[in-house]
Sequence to fold (393 residues):
Amino acid sequence: MNIKGFQFSAVEAAIKKPGRLDLALIFSETPAAVAAVYTTNKVKAAPVLLDMERTRNGSCQAIVVNSGNANACTGPRGMDDARETTRLVAEGLGIPDEAVLVSSTGVIGVPLPMERIRTGIRPLVDGLSGGTLDEVARAIMTTDTFPKLESRKGSAGGKEYTIAGIAKGAGMIMPNMATMLAFIVTDAAVEPAWLRTVFAAGIERSFNAITVDGDTSTNDTAVIMANGAAGNPPLTGSADGAADFVRLLDEVLLALAKLIVRDGEGATKFVEITVRGARSDADAKRAAMAVANSCLVKTAFFGQDANWGRIFAAVGYSGADVEPERTELFFDDVLMVKNGVFAGGDAEARGTEILKQKEFKVVVDLHLGGGAATVYTSDLSYDYVKINADYRT
Fold:
């Protein structure tokens, strides 16, 4: 995959254990416009705090990422280690230290093995000429079972550009944001302030519309870099091609978000939950997320049990305005509940068949207004417990 002006590299540094890529680098040959969205968890990892400082000026040139260790809850040493990592990368690349971002994912509360990272940075920088974005996607995985990549091509001002993205995440997935990392690169020229606006909006429709287990990580980070190597006139809201850029960016972000849900720890189902007819979009989102995060609902999905009462209960406690006597519920196109009353045995049988599918939709219509929202979730299986019961071992 060729994204003009970007280079990639990944190496094995044995940060948690040997035998896999776990240290990666994304490098723009020229300074790039940057926008980022971070976890809203009040407990933030050192890399998040450092990157929040550095992305304020709207420019960066490199991102170094490690998996296997979150560098979270590691005190002053954690910040020192994050800063040293960026300094070593900057020296290797010959760019300013503040132009380098750092991101980490893995176990919380364990200091980074800096001697291994120091050893890994030189081959990491030296490997840029032959590395690939796919290798970076593999290096940032933790409990993921497959690397997550998406790309789209577009044009603006007669110049073709590419938007490509990678993400990691399978557990500790919940909006604001969801242990999720995402890195998007584009060779399109984009005005920095507008990039921040459209990226934040795209995140709300994608990574903030998924949940696997209702947990918001200390390290969640999504970053986009736009280096302008395609040579198009800088895109802003009023420019020709701006709407296409937003559409393509949204497609990349949503596709990556859905891959995270599909790879949810122990997941056997991919479920799209839509609430419509709400008094507002915010109310619809509230209700949809309550359903998507309910352990009772998620275990019913796993057991292929058409227990619509659990869904009704979640909508009712969500905080959204609800009038049960108006509410309808569908599994795909099967009407399970009409005007708050169960549709009967035939609906039960047909609904159970729907839940046997690997993918299906749940639609709740509140019939109160024009608000609507869609979120994506997975089921909750025995394997989720097994994976997380011994995550540190």
In short: The two ends are 36 Å apart (CA to CA). Residues 33 and 138 are 25 Å apart (CA to CA).
